[in-house]
Design a protein that fits this description.
About 10% of the residues lie in helices and about 45% in strands. It is mostly beta strands and about 325 residues long. The protein folds into two domains: about 140 residues, Acid Proteases (Cathepsin D, subunit A, domain 1, Beta Barrel); about 160 residues, Cathepsin D, subunit A, domain 1 (Beta Barrel), CATH 2.40.70.10. The protein has an 18-stranded mixed beta sheet that branches. Strands 5-6-13-7-12-11 form a six-stranded mixed barrel. Strands 9-10 form a two-stranded antiparallel sheet. The longest helix has 9 residues. The protein starts with 10 loop residues before the first strand and ends in a 6-residue tail after the last strand. The N terminus and C terminus are likely disordered.
Amino acid sequence: MAGFHWRKTAIAGMAMLATISPLRAAPEETPMSSDPELVQGSHDLSTRLTVPVTINGGGPYSFVVDTAAERTVISRELADRLALTAGSSVTVLSISGYDQIDTAIVPKLQLTPTRSRMTDVEAPMMKESNLGASGLLGIDSLQSKRVVIDFKAMRMSIVDATTQSAYNGDIVVTARSKYGQLILVDASADGQKVNVIIDTGSQVSIGNPALHARLMARRRLGPVTPITIMSVTGGQMPADYSSIAHMRIGGVQLNGMPVAFTDAEIFHKLGLTDKPALLLGMDVLRNFSRVSVDFANRSVRFLLPGEAFQQAPMVASVDRPKAG
Protein backbone atom coordinates (compact mmCIF):
# COMPACT_ATOMS: atom_id res chain seq x y z
CA MET A 1 0.00 0.00 0.00
CA ALA A 2 2.88 2.35 -0.79
CA GLY A 3 1.89 5.97 -0.88
CA PHE A 4 -1.09 5.58 1.46
CA HIS A 5 -1.06 6.48 5.14
CA TRP A 6 -3.97 5.11 7.15
CA ARG A 7 -5.09 5.35 10.75
CA LYS A 8 -6.04 2.09 12.47
CA THR A 9 -9.13 3.63 14.00
CA ALA A 10 -12.84 3.46 13.43
CA ILE A 11 -13.96 4.79 10.05
CA ALA A 12 -16.68 7.44 9.92
CA GLY A 13 -18.85 7.33 6.84
CA MET A 14 -21.08 9.38 4.58
CA ALA A 15 -24.42 8.34 3.09
CA MET A 16 -23.35 5.00 1.68
CA LEU A 17 -19.66 5.50 1.99
CA ALA A 18 -16.69 5.79 4.27
CA THR A 19 -13.78 8.00 5.19
CA ILE A 20 -10.72 7.21 7.24
CA SER A 21 -9.67 10.68 8.34
CA PRO A 22 -11.56 12.61 11.04
CA LEU A 23 -14.29 14.78 9.60
CA ARG A 24 -14.58 18.54 9.98
CA ALA A 25 -17.32 20.83 8.79
CA ALA A 26 -16.39 22.72 5.64
CA PRO A 27 -16.71 26.53 5.84
CA GLU A 28 -19.96 27.94 4.61
CA GLU A 29 -18.49 30.79 2.61
CA THR A 30 -16.76 29.61 -0.59
CA PRO A 31 -15.17 31.90 -3.19
CA MET A 32 -17.08 31.85 -6.47
CA SER A 33 -15.36 31.15 -9.78
CA SER A 34 -15.59 33.65 -12.63
CA ASP A 35 -15.92 30.84 -15.19
CA PRO A 36 -19.66 30.16 -15.74
CA GLU A 37 -19.01 26.47 -16.40
CA LEU A 38 -16.66 25.75 -13.52
CA VAL A 39 -17.22 25.26 -9.83
CA GLN A 40 -14.09 25.68 -7.75
CA GLY A 41 -13.52 22.74 -5.42
CA SER A 42 -11.90 22.58 -2.02
CA HIS A 43 -10.92 19.53 0.00
CA ASP A 44 -11.32 18.70 3.66
CA LEU A 45 -9.27 16.38 5.85
CA SER A 46 -10.82 13.32 4.20
CA THR A 47 -9.82 14.68 0.75
CA ARG A 48 -13.44 14.84 -0.41
CA LEU A 49 -14.19 17.72 -2.75
CA THR A 50 -16.83 20.33 -1.98
CA VAL A 51 -18.55 22.78 -4.31
CA PRO A 52 -20.49 25.98 -3.58
CA VAL A 53 -24.27 26.01 -3.85
CA THR A 54 -26.84 28.67 -3.03
CA ILE A 55 -30.16 28.00 -1.34
CA ASN A 56 -32.98 30.44 -2.05
CA GLY A 57 -30.31 32.86 -3.29
CA GLY A 58 -28.33 32.75 -0.04
CA GLY A 59 -24.88 31.36 0.58
CA PRO A 60 -22.84 29.96 -0.99
CA TYR A 61 -22.63 26.81 1.13
CA SER A 62 -20.13 23.98 0.71
CA PHE A 63 -21.62 20.69 -0.48
CA VAL A 64 -19.82 17.41 -1.05
CA VAL A 65 -20.23 15.89 -4.55
CA ASP A 66 -21.04 12.20 -4.14
CA THR A 67 -21.38 10.19 -7.36
CA ALA A 68 -22.67 7.12 -5.48
CA ALA A 69 -25.29 8.73 -3.23
CA GLU A 70 -28.88 8.57 -4.44
CA ARG A 71 -30.19 11.80 -2.98
CA THR A 72 -29.10 15.35 -2.30
CA VAL A 73 -28.74 15.88 1.46
CA ILE A 74 -28.66 19.00 3.63
CA SER A 75 -27.15 19.32 7.07
CA ARG A 76 -29.65 19.58 9.89
CA GLU A 77 -27.84 22.64 11.21
CA LEU A 78 -28.13 24.53 7.91
CA ALA A 79 -31.78 23.56 7.50
CA ASP A 80 -32.45 24.95 11.00
CA ARG A 81 -30.57 28.19 10.31
CA LEU A 82 -32.54 28.72 7.10
CA ALA A 83 -35.82 27.79 8.83
CA LEU A 84 -36.70 25.36 6.02
CA THR A 85 -40.10 23.69 6.06
CA ALA A 86 -40.08 20.14 7.36
CA GLY A 87 -40.85 17.42 4.83
CA SER A 88 -41.88 13.81 5.30
CA SER A 89 -39.74 11.03 6.68
CA VAL A 90 -37.98 9.02 3.97
CA THR A 91 -36.01 5.79 3.83
CA VAL A 92 -32.30 6.39 3.24
CA LEU A 93 -29.68 3.79 2.38
CA SER A 94 -26.46 4.02 4.38
CA ILE A 95 -23.40 1.81 4.69
CA SER A 96 -25.07 -0.03 7.56
CA GLY A 97 -28.52 -0.45 6.00
CA TYR A 98 -31.80 1.41 5.71
CA ASP A 99 -32.92 4.17 8.09
CA GLN A 100 -35.89 6.53 8.36
CA ILE A 101 -34.64 10.12 8.11
CA ASP A 102 -36.49 13.43 8.45
CA THR A 103 -36.33 15.78 5.48
CA ALA A 104 -36.45 19.52 4.80
CA ILE A 105 -37.99 21.15 1.73
CA VAL A 106 -35.39 23.20 -0.17
CA PRO A 107 -37.37 25.61 -2.44
CA LYS A 108 -34.41 26.38 -4.74
CA LEU A 109 -30.93 24.90 -4.74
CA GLN A 110 -28.51 26.23 -7.34
CA LEU A 111 -25.00 25.14 -8.19
CA THR A 112 -23.00 28.37 -8.31
CA PRO A 113 -21.97 30.00 -10.53
CA THR A 114 -23.74 27.80 -13.10
CA ARG A 115 -27.45 28.00 -13.89
CA SER A 116 -28.09 24.39 -12.83
CA ARG A 117 -30.81 24.35 -10.23
CA MET A 118 -33.23 22.07 -8.41
CA THR A 119 -36.56 23.17 -6.96
CA ASP A 120 -38.65 21.84 -4.09
CA VAL A 121 -36.01 19.31 -3.11
CA GLU A 122 -37.07 16.99 -0.30
CA ALA A 123 -33.60 16.64 1.19
CA PRO A 124 -32.81 14.24 4.04
CA MET A 125 -31.22 16.02 7.00
CA MET A 126 -28.01 14.70 8.55
CA LYS A 127 -25.55 16.08 11.07
CA GLU A 128 -23.03 18.51 9.63
CA SER A 129 -20.22 16.95 11.68
CA ASN A 130 -20.88 13.61 9.96
CA LEU A 131 -21.23 15.06 6.46
CA GLY A 132 -18.10 17.16 6.75
CA ALA A 133 -19.92 19.90 4.84
CA SER A 134 -23.21 21.79 4.73
CA GLY A 135 -24.73 19.19 2.44
CA LEU A 136 -24.24 16.60 -0.25
CA LEU A 137 -25.04 16.61 -3.97
CA GLY A 138 -26.26 13.15 -4.99
CA ILE A 139 -26.97 11.59 -8.35
CA ASP A 140 -30.48 13.08 -8.37
CA SER A 141 -28.73 16.38 -9.21
CA LEU A 142 -26.12 14.89 -11.57
CA GLN A 143 -28.07 12.74 -14.04
CA SER A 144 -27.71 15.13 -17.00
CA LYS A 145 -24.25 16.29 -15.95
CA ARG A 146 -20.60 15.51 -16.38
CA VAL A 147 -18.48 15.81 -13.24
CA VAL A 148 -14.81 16.53 -13.96
CA ILE A 149 -12.36 16.41 -11.07
CA ASP A 150 -8.94 17.93 -11.74
CA PHE A 151 -6.90 16.76 -8.77
CA LYS A 152 -3.77 18.69 -9.67
CA ALA A 153 -5.59 22.02 -9.80
CA MET A 154 -8.10 21.00 -7.09
CA ARG A 155 -10.80 22.21 -9.46
CA MET A 156 -14.12 20.60 -10.15
CA SER A 157 -16.42 21.39 -13.06
CA ILE A 158 -20.01 20.23 -13.24
CA VAL A 159 -21.44 20.88 -16.69
CA ASP A 160 -24.19 19.68 -18.97
CA ALA A 161 -23.13 16.47 -20.68
CA THR A 162 -23.72 18.15 -24.06
CA THR A 163 -20.99 20.71 -23.34
CA GLN A 164 -17.94 20.07 -25.51
CA SER A 165 -14.68 19.58 -23.63
CA ALA A 166 -11.15 18.86 -24.79
CA TYR A 167 -9.75 15.59 -23.46
CA ASN A 168 -6.20 14.69 -24.41
CA GLY A 169 -4.81 11.31 -23.41
CA ASP A 170 -7.81 10.24 -21.33
CA ILE A 171 -8.63 6.54 -21.02
CA VAL A 172 -12.37 6.04 -21.57
CA VAL A 173 -14.25 3.27 -19.77
CA THR A 174 -17.92 2.74 -20.63
CA ALA A 175 -20.53 1.93 -18.00
CA ARG A 176 -24.06 0.68 -17.57
CA SER A 177 -26.61 2.46 -15.42
CA LYS A 178 -28.79 1.01 -12.69
CA TYR A 179 -30.90 3.17 -10.38
CA GLY A 180 -28.83 6.09 -11.66
CA GLN A 181 -25.54 4.51 -10.56
CA LEU A 182 -22.78 4.09 -13.15
CA ILE A 183 -21.31 0.59 -13.05
CA LEU A 184 -18.06 -0.10 -14.91
CA VAL A 185 -18.05 -3.69 -16.13
CA ASP A 186 -14.70 -3.77 -17.94
CA ALA A 187 -12.64 -4.32 -14.79
CA SER A 188 -10.87 -7.14 -12.98
CA ALA A 189 -9.10 -7.75 -9.68
CA ASP A 190 -6.18 -10.16 -9.99
CA GLY A 191 -7.90 -11.69 -13.01
CA GLN A 192 -11.32 -11.85 -11.32
CA LYS A 193 -14.04 -9.91 -13.15
CA VAL A 194 -15.45 -7.15 -10.95
CA ASN A 195 -18.20 -4.51 -11.20
CA VAL A 196 -16.90 -1.05 -10.23
CA ILE A 197 -18.96 1.95 -9.02
CA ILE A 198 -17.22 5.35 -9.01
CA ASP A 199 -17.65 6.86 -5.56
CA THR A 200 -16.39 10.42 -5.07
CA GLY A 201 -17.97 10.64 -1.63
CA SER A 202 -15.79 7.99 -0.04
CA GLN A 203 -12.13 8.23 0.83
CA VAL A 204 -11.73 4.46 1.06
CA SER A 205 -12.63 1.91 -1.63
CA ILE A 206 -15.06 -0.80 -0.48
CA GLY A 207 -15.30 -4.36 -1.81
CA ASN A 208 -18.20 -6.75 -1.33
CA PRO A 209 -18.07 -10.24 0.26
CA ALA A 210 -18.27 -11.95 -3.15
CA LEU A 211 -15.06 -10.25 -4.26
CA HIS A 212 -13.44 -10.95 -0.90
CA ALA A 213 -14.33 -14.67 -1.11
CA ARG A 214 -13.00 -15.03 -4.67
CA LEU A 215 -9.69 -13.37 -3.83
CA MET A 216 -9.31 -15.24 -0.55
CA ALA A 217 -9.88 -18.57 -2.28
CA ARG A 218 -7.06 -17.73 -4.69
CA ARG A 219 -4.88 -16.31 -1.89
CA ARG A 220 -4.69 -12.99 -3.70
CA LEU A 221 -5.24 -10.61 -0.78
CA GLY A 222 -2.66 -8.73 1.25
CA PRO A 223 -2.48 -8.60 5.07
CA VAL A 224 -5.84 -7.90 6.72
CA THR A 225 -6.58 -5.29 9.41
CA PRO A 226 -10.04 -5.39 11.13
CA ILE A 227 -11.71 -1.97 11.13
CA THR A 228 -15.15 -0.52 11.83
CA ILE A 229 -17.14 1.61 9.42
CA MET A 230 -19.70 3.98 10.95
CA SER A 231 -22.45 5.52 8.83
CA VAL A 232 -23.91 9.00 9.15
CA THR A 233 -26.94 7.47 10.81
CA GLY A 234 -24.79 6.05 13.62
CA GLY A 235 -24.86 2.43 12.43
CA GLN A 236 -21.61 0.47 12.43
CA MET A 237 -20.25 -2.21 10.13
CA PRO A 238 -17.15 -4.38 10.61
CA ALA A 239 -14.75 -4.48 7.66
CA ASP A 240 -11.50 -6.16 6.68
CA TYR A 241 -8.96 -3.67 5.38
CA SER A 242 -6.53 -5.19 2.89
CA SER A 243 -5.11 -4.68 -0.61
CA ILE A 244 -5.51 -6.03 -4.13
CA ALA A 245 -2.21 -6.73 -5.87
CA HIS A 246 -3.38 -6.04 -9.43
CA MET A 247 -6.52 -4.10 -10.30
CA ARG A 248 -7.49 -3.33 -13.90
CA ILE A 249 -10.11 -0.79 -14.94
CA GLY A 250 -10.46 -0.62 -18.71
CA GLY A 251 -6.97 0.15 -19.96
CA VAL A 252 -5.60 1.19 -16.56
CA GLN A 253 -3.58 -1.10 -14.27
CA LEU A 254 -3.37 -0.26 -10.55
CA ASN A 255 -0.99 -2.20 -8.32
CA GLY A 256 -1.28 -2.53 -4.56
CA MET A 257 -4.76 -1.01 -4.35
CA PRO A 258 -6.14 -0.64 -0.79
CA VAL A 259 -9.70 -1.82 -0.15
CA ALA A 260 -12.02 -2.37 2.82
CA PHE A 261 -14.29 -5.41 2.52
CA THR A 262 -17.77 -5.31 4.04
CA ASP A 263 -21.33 -6.35 3.22
CA ALA A 264 -22.64 -2.88 2.35
CA GLU A 265 -26.35 -2.74 1.49
CA ILE A 266 -25.73 -0.86 -1.78
CA PHE A 267 -24.33 -4.04 -3.32
CA HIS A 268 -27.60 -5.85 -2.60
CA LYS A 269 -29.71 -3.04 -4.02
CA LEU A 270 -27.72 -3.04 -7.25
CA GLY A 271 -28.14 -6.80 -7.64
CA LEU A 272 -24.46 -7.44 -6.94
CA THR A 273 -24.83 -9.68 -3.90
CA ASP A 274 -23.25 -12.70 -5.59
CA LYS A 275 -21.10 -10.82 -8.11
CA PRO A 276 -17.69 -9.36 -7.22
CA ALA A 277 -18.13 -5.59 -6.87
CA LEU A 278 -16.21 -2.57 -5.66
CA LEU A 279 -16.93 1.04 -4.72
CA LEU A 280 -13.93 2.95 -6.09
CA GLY A 281 -13.23 5.72 -3.58
CA MET A 282 -11.07 8.82 -3.48
CA ASP A 283 -8.07 6.90 -2.13
CA VAL A 284 -7.71 5.48 -5.64
CA LEU A 285 -9.25 8.27 -7.74
CA ARG A 286 -6.88 10.92 -6.38
CA ASN A 287 -3.96 9.03 -7.90
CA PHE A 288 -5.10 10.20 -11.34
CA SER A 289 -4.52 13.69 -12.64
CA ARG A 290 -8.14 13.95 -13.73
CA VAL A 291 -11.31 11.87 -13.49
CA SER A 292 -14.45 12.65 -15.48
CA VAL A 293 -17.77 10.99 -14.62
CA ASP A 294 -20.34 11.42 -17.41
CA PHE A 295 -23.75 10.28 -16.22
CA ALA A 296 -25.66 11.15 -19.39
CA ASN A 297 -23.27 9.31 -21.70
CA ARG A 298 -22.51 6.50 -19.26
CA SER A 299 -18.75 6.73 -19.30
CA VAL A 300 -15.80 7.55 -17.06
CA ARG A 301 -12.51 9.06 -18.20
CA PHE A 302 -9.17 8.69 -16.42
CA LEU A 303 -6.05 10.74 -17.05
CA LEU A 304 -2.61 9.50 -15.98
CA PRO A 305 -0.26 10.10 -14.25
CA GLY A 306 -1.52 10.39 -10.70
CA GLU A 307 0.42 13.08 -8.91
CA ALA A 308 -2.45 14.67 -7.03
CA PHE A 309 -2.03 15.83 -3.44
CA GLN A 310 1.77 15.61 -3.91
CA GLN A 311 2.05 12.08 -2.55
CA ALA A 312 3.50 8.93 -4.04
CA PRO A 313 0.74 7.28 -6.12
CA MET A 314 0.10 3.62 -6.64
CA VAL A 315 1.85 2.17 -9.63
CA ALA A 316 -0.45 2.90 -12.55
CA SER A 317 0.02 2.06 -16.19
CA VAL A 318 -1.91 1.75 -19.43
CA ASP A 319 -2.51 -1.73 -20.82
CA ARG A 320 -1.34 -1.74 -24.42
CA PRO A 321 -1.56 -4.59 -26.97
CA LYS A 322 1.73 -6.42 -27.41
CA ALA A 323 3.32 -6.32 -30.85
CA GLY A 324 3.42 -9.52 -32.88
